[in-house]
Amino acid sequence: MHIAILGAGRVGSTLGRRFAEAGHTVVYGMRDPDDAKHTMPRDARDTLAGAAARAEVLVLTTSWAGAADALAAAGDLSGKVLIDATNPIGPGMVLTHGTTDSGAEQVARWAPGARVVKAFNSIGMEIMADARFGDARAVLWLCGDDAEACAQVATLAHDIGFEPLRLGPLVRARMLEPAALLWITASGVLGTRDFAWGVLRR
Fold first, then answer.
1. Is 81 helix (H, G, I), strand (E, B) or coil?
2. How far is CA 148 from CA 53, 151, 166, 167, 169, in A?
3. Of 70, 140, 142, 190, which cross-links 157 as Cys (Cβ 3.0–4.6 Å)?
């Protein structure tokens, strides 16, 4: 797949590297692709609009504060699969969207026509970098209204080592986004970020 990472921070660069290692073509969309601070090859960098135009799947990895501007700069995303990996966390580590709305639903409003899938938001970049725990795969929760888009995202997640599990329509992001705070809180209690979600079955 041709994948555009919208944002060049630690989450975006980690996911981009892992997708490239799995054989996908990755381009990073950023405000200034010529900025010397970026370490990825120059031919893998583009403007937000340029990267979006080149890709089948886009991954929004900006901060929540920068999400609206990034999507506006990316242009018309109608028909594109848009993975929302952000979390609507404001000052004091409090969710800005709660049980009656979600950041993912807001992203869908900012990008009308995009096929939004919530994923990669409820674990840290350490697990994105290596989702395998021996023979087990870390679970990656995802949700979205478009079944085909969710299947594409599930394939990408599996390609980089996850066990993807779709929880249903995009409204279920109202449960997934608080899960990010749970993961962050648990990492402090456990004293490590090297842990992941899993499912035990009988």
1. strand
2. 20, 5, 12, 14, 12
3. 140
The strand pair at 139-144 and 57-60 is best described as unpaired
- Tell me the pLDDT tens digit for each residue of 24-35: 999 999 998 888
What six digits make up the tokens of 93? 């580590």
User: Which residues, in sequence order, are CB contacts of 132 under 8 Å at separation 6+?
Assistant: 138, 161
Residue 134 falls within a domain, yes or no? yes
- For the segment 38-48, the average pLDDT, to the nearest whole number, is 90
Q: How many domains does the chain fold into?
A: 1
**What distance lies between CA 148 and its chain's CA centroid?**
17
CB atoms within 10 A of CB 124: 18
Residue where the block lists tokens 């409204």: 171
> CATH number, domain at 77?
3.40.50.720
